C-alpha cells in the first residue's frame, strides 16, 4: 500500500492525479466560456494529444499517473460513494423540487462509466430526453433542447485546485467560483471510498462544500518543506480560508508554519503558482511584475489536538519581507529568485502563458510548456533541468503543468 504523503514542493514525485480533457471541454461555447471560467475555446482533440504527452512526461520522470475520471468511476462502484455524489449533484435548490428527484433517479440508473461522464461532462436537455420522458418541471420546461441541465466541470483539467495534499493529509477545498464548487464532490467521493485511498492512512480536511467565504484553492498552496506551507491570498483564496487551513494543519500536527502572501486580486494573478513556483530546495522562479507583497507568518500558540483549541500567532512582515519570511520558514539564510531579464511586455506575455507555472518532478527538474522559451532558457542557464511539453491548446485554458497536477505522493527534501 502506498503511503499518501506530500513532503515538499520539489522532492521526487511518485504519484499524481491528472484529468485528461473530455466532453466537458466540448461544452464550452462563446456564450458559456466566461461563466465556465475560460478565456478561449480549446481544440479538444489537440488538447488531449498534448495532455497525453504531459502524462507520458510524468511517467518518464518516475511518477505513477492516476486519472481522475477512472478514479471516479471506480469510486462510484461503492454504494456510499454513489449516494454521496447523487445527493450532492442533484440539489433541489439548483434544479427545483420537481426536477431534482427525477434527475437523481435517472442518474442512479446509469452504470459507473456513464454516471462519471455525466458528473464531469454535464448533460443537456436533449440528452436527458433520450433517457426519460419530458418531466413536469418549470425549470426543465423553460430550457431549450441544447441547454445544459447539469453543468459540466471543465476546470477539472486543473487537478491542483479542488484538493491539495499537505504533508500527511489532504484538504478538499471550498472553491470560490460557482462553476467549480461541485469539483469538491468528486474528490470527496474518491478520497473517502476509492479502494486505493480508503485503505490508506492520512488526514482529511474536508469542508469543501460548506466553508462559505473561507475559500482556498490548491494553486495558491505550496508545500515548501521543513513543516512550512506557503499560501497566496488571491482572487480565489481568502484570508479567512488561509486562517482556517492553518488552524487545521496546526491542530493535526501536519505543519508548524504558514507564510501567506497578499497577491493582487486580478485574473492574471489568479493563483500564487501563476507568478511563483519552487524549482529546487532553495530556488523559485518568479514573475518580474510581482513587486513587493505584504506577507504574514502564522504559527500555532498551542499544541492542543482539537482545532478549536489552536490559537494563531500572526506576524506582519514589513514591505519586501516576503522572501526573508519564506527563507526563515525553510531554515535558510536566503532564497535564489530566478527572474529572466526581458522587457515588461515580453515578461507579461510569458507569465500569461504560464512561464512561472513549473511543476517540479525532482529537485532541480521541472516540466514546463514549450510556449515559454525565454523562461525555459533562463531556467536551463540557472542549472535547472527543463522538460518541455506542448502547450499550444492546453495553455489556452490559463493553467500550466503545475495547475494540471495534484501530487498525492512526493518525497520530502533536506
Structure write-up:
With 414 residues, this protein is α/β, with parallel strands linked by helices. It folds into 2 domains: 5-69 and 154-410, L-arginine/glycine Amidinotransferase, Chain A (5-stranded Propeller), CATH 3.75.10; 71-150, Orthogonal Bundle (Pentein). Helix content is 32%, strand content 21%. The chain is built from 14 helices and 20 strands. The protein has helices spanning 23-26, 44-60, 68-76, 79-89, 92-108, 112-121, 125-129, 138-141, 183-193, 195-198, 239-252, 322-330, 344-352, 373-381; strands spanning 5-6, 13-18, 64-67, 123-124, 148-150, 163-166, 169-172, 203-206, 221-225, 228-233, 257-262, 276-280, 283-286, 295-300, 312-316, 336-338, 359-362, 365-369, 385-389, 406-410. It has a 5-stranded mixed sheet with strand order 9-10-11-14-15. Helix 4 packs antiparallel against helix 9 (183-193). The radius of gyration is 21 Å and the shape is globular. It is an enzyme of class 3 (hydrolase). InterPro entries: Arg_deiminase. It catalyses: L-arginine + H2O = L-citrulline + NH4(+).
Mean pLDDT: 92
| CATH homologous superfamily heading of the largest domain | L-arginine/glycine Amidinotransferase, Chain A
What percent strand? Answer: 15-25%
User: Termini, distance in Å?
Assistant: 25 Å
Largest sheet: 5 strands, mixed
Rg computed from alpha carbons, rounded to a whole number of angstroms: 21 Å
Count every beta strand, where a strand is a DSSP E run of 2 or more residues. Answer: 20
Q: Looking at CATH, which topology of the largest domain would you report?
A: L-arginine/glycine Amidinotransferase, Chain A
Helix content: 25-40%
